[in-house]
Amino acid sequence: MDTWMRFRSNDGDIVFGRVEGGYLHEYKSLDQPVPTGAVLSTRVLTPLAPCAPGKVVALWNNYHALAAKLDKPVPAHPLFLLKPAGSVIGAGEPIRRPAGYAGKIVYEGELGIVIGRRCRNASVEEAADAIFGYTLINDVTAADLLNENPHFPQWCRAKGFDTFCCIGPSIVSGFEWQQAHLVTMLDDVERQNYPLDDMVFSPAEQVSLISQDLTFEPGDVIACGTSVGVGSIKEGATVSITIKGIGTLSNTLIAAGATAAAHAERAAAV
Q: Which string of DSSP letters, residue by residue, matches 46-99?
């Protein structure tokens, strides 16, 4: 397995590459994984979300256990919505409560699929080859907005706010997802612990079926959906999502008017 990350350097450039032993071996880009020869210490780099997706496709009702709990039929095709690129943040960045919204904010720990090549009308085999690797996602939702209007469920609005798509900390290629579990911690309390092989549609099936509906570009992400254990977050609480072999994605919810600098100062003081 290889671990891939994306950083900002001190001069403001964005660099991407394979991380090993505290060093970034720089590559041209995710869709052109050709080494540049540069080797940089990660200690002098600022980590970012590991990719910059043009779109994030987020699945709903893709785990048998959650479908059974909600008493929903298993879908014949992936049920999905789109989260905007502007909602993406990386590990350690704060989730911001939307201004003027006082309702419930919900976390969802999910496996993420990162697309490595342009993909349209792909077979399952072609789809598997188009997967660059896997990451972690917190698909955040302003839950009270979903049914605010009784005539139109607002999935995209509720899930599309800035900072509502946490991705990271890295992408792992060659990851064997079939035997893995996802664990979500809310501060120090375990809230989710579910097997990834309970998915209705496997990663390759997701890419194949959704590619019949839209074109995937390199760097696009699929959030594979969540299982049981979803819950709400209060200001100051930290959600940490872990899959052994990929790592841990942690983000803290802050109030609408709070600054990232103040959040960092409080975190350093703990």
A: EE--S---S-EEEEES-BHHHHHHHT-PPPSS-EEEEE-GGGEE-TTPPEEPPT
Q: Whole-angstrom Cα distance, residue 119 to residue 108?
A: 27
Residues 81, 142, single domain; the answer is yes
Q: What is the pTM of this model?
A: 0.93
Model pLDDT, residue 201: 98
Residue 260: phi, psi to the nearest 5?
-60, -35
Nearest residue to 199 via CA among 58, 76, 63: 63
Residues of the chain whose pLDDT is less than 50?
269-270
What is the pLDDT, as a whole number, of residue 270?
47
Domain that holds residue 100: 49-269
What is the total residue count of the chain? Answer: 270
The CATH number that applies at residue 74 is: 3.90.850.10
* Number of domains the chain is built from: 2
CA angle at 180 for the pair 197 and 66, rounded to the nearest 5°: 45
The answer to whether the CB of 246 falls within 8 A of the CB of 172 is yes
For residue range 108-137, list pLDDT tens digits in order: 999 999 999 999 999 999 999 999 999 999
Of 98, 103, 88, 100, the residue nearest 135 (C-alpha):
88
